[in-house]
Amino acid sequence: MLSAASSAWAHGGFWRAHQILFTPDDPLRITLRSDVWGMALSHDGGETWRWICAEPFGRETTTPRRISMAAMPGGAVSAASLGDGLRLLEDDPCEWREASELADTLVRGVVQAGDMTLVLTGRSDAGTTTTLLFASDDGGGSFSELATALPAGFVGTHLAVAPGDPERLYATAASGETLQLARSEDGGDSWSMHTHVVAVGDGQWEARVLAVNPQDPDMLLVVADGFEPRGGQLSPDTVYLSTDGGAGLSMVFGGQGDVPAAAFSPDGTEILIGGIVDGLLGADSGALASDGSSALETRHDSGIYGLTWNEDALYAGTEEFADGGTGYSVGRSVDGGRSFERLMSVCDVTAVECDPDTHGGLVCPALWSDMGMGGGGFKEDFLETGRCDSGDPASDAGDAGAGASDGGVTAPPADAGAQGEPDGDDSGGQPPPDPDATRDTNGDDGCSCAVPGSRAPLRNALPVMISGLWLWARRRRSAPREATARDGAKSPHTW
Questions:
Q1: Exposure of 194 by Cβ count < 10 A (0-12 exposed, 13-18 middle, 19+ buried)?
Q2: b/e per residue, 114-152, with b = 16+ CB within 10 A?
């Protein structure tokens, strides 16, 4: 298990690749999102990586929170920032643009459906929440609300699209022991509803579509995702398979802990399920449908946090920090996950150089490095712990705490259950009273922000961050708006 003295855990948890995105028309552009500690970007196929903090896209860097992002044609990236609307990375990772049409909505999910960017939102009026879908066909330049809202009483928390059919959409909601699955076959103009009673524990949970078969939009995996309670314990998740577009569900896997990822092979014949405790499991799609969990075999022991399988290869967000881990954060596999080569480690990351007048320029430097003030930033917590100096990121895993193998599966770190909150809803399908209220994964109401061996907060860094945010907001209000590419033809994105 992880050492209690781990500074990275003290500051919210470890950086991991919870989402791996490739730009549709430029596969050399890769975006890696972590539930905590921001994101990493590459424009050269993973040869180099640049880090940016979470504040420019509306989140807090050291507070674990699961959100969804989508890579858009042309190089833009959209981020569902929950109570802070939709943010768009266009030309500068340090300055994300807010989508004004979504400013008064709770953005829960975003997907790229062909050339369309679709956004799942909630709007409250007199205590009633209406789930809406917005769409953009100009690369995020503008968004319009689709005429048909989702059915009344459906509080959607997650949106998914079939890779092989951009008209096929799925939205999920959860309430009590009921899993609601809405399906659209016409890009969101109309919806059919399917309701299922599922086995869940006493805690809060949400329903999410983990993956849709690219060759068969009726085949999909859905997870009943238990919400980890205080202290970071692992709540076992349950995975269901549907072969008829959500009308029926059959339980195919019961995880020992969190099951955050799944993927179908590009030809649709294989299914992979990734768990933090269970590792990577795989099966033939047809065999899983007919035989259930008995068809699954373990393909890799490392804890899995994210999966993307495209025509090029399988990419997995793995466990870099635990004893017996892979020694990298993202691995690439050409044999269906049976073996991996390193694509990215936190040791490869450098900070994005932000203009001082941008949001990122005013906030991110203090989160990248505390410059010896004792608070600890990304640089101190990850790059200067000894792992990177050794040339083998896994060789000094004890600096971040170590786990022991159990039954051939890497034991998860103590924070393994401390992935970010589910996509904006931790209340059993009911809209949360505060979209920014986060689960306590440290036992102290969020990130303890403490240095090893102490409970002292980041006192020296906080004044810099607070004053930076104030200056950024003041400059945004007072500066005249300059003409940009989005006032006319959109220019190629250059990040």
A1: middle
A2: eebbbbbbbeeeeeebbbbbbbbeebbbebebbeeebee
Residue 144 lies in a domain: yes
* Residue 161 domain flag: yes
The span from the CA of 183 to the CA of 484, in Å, is 38
pLDDT tens-digit readout, 207-254:
999 999 999 999 999 999 987 654 455 788 999 999 999 999 999 999
Cβ atoms of 238 and 210 within 8 Å: the answer is no
The structural domain count of the chain equals 1
Domain around 87: 18-349+411-437
Residue 69 lies in a domain: yes
N-term to C-term CA, the chain: 38
Which secondary structure element, helix H or strand E, spans residue 272, and what is its range? strand 270-275
Closest CA to 205 of 439, 447, 442: 439
The residue ranges of DSSP E strands in 90-164, in sequence order, are: 97-98, 106-113, 116-125, 128-136, 144-145, 158-162
Q: How many CA atoms lie within 13 A of 277 on its CB side?
A: 17
pLDDT digits (tens, 9 = 90+) for 39-94: 999 999 999 999 999 999 999 999 988 999 999 999 999 999 887 799 999 989 99
Question: Is 229 among the domain residues?
Answer: yes
pLDDT digits (tens, 9 = 90+) for 294-327: 999 999 999 999 999 999 999 999 988 776 778 8
User: Tell me, what amino acid is at 380?
Assistant: E
The amino acid present at 199, given as its one-letter code, is: A
pLDDT score recorded for residue 420: 54
CB proximity list for 17: less than 8 A, separation 6 or greater? 32, 33, 34, 40, 305, 306, 317, 318, 329, 330, 344
Query: Quick check: pTM over 0.90?
Result: no
How far from the centroid of its chain's Cα atoms is residue 421's Cα? 10
Which CATH number does the domain housing residue 213 bear?
Answer: 2.130.10.10
Spatial separation of the C-alpha atoms in residues 423 and 80, rounded to whole Å: 9
Tokens of 472: 């950024």
Question: Do the beta carbons of residue 54 and residue 62 sit within 8 Å?
Answer: no
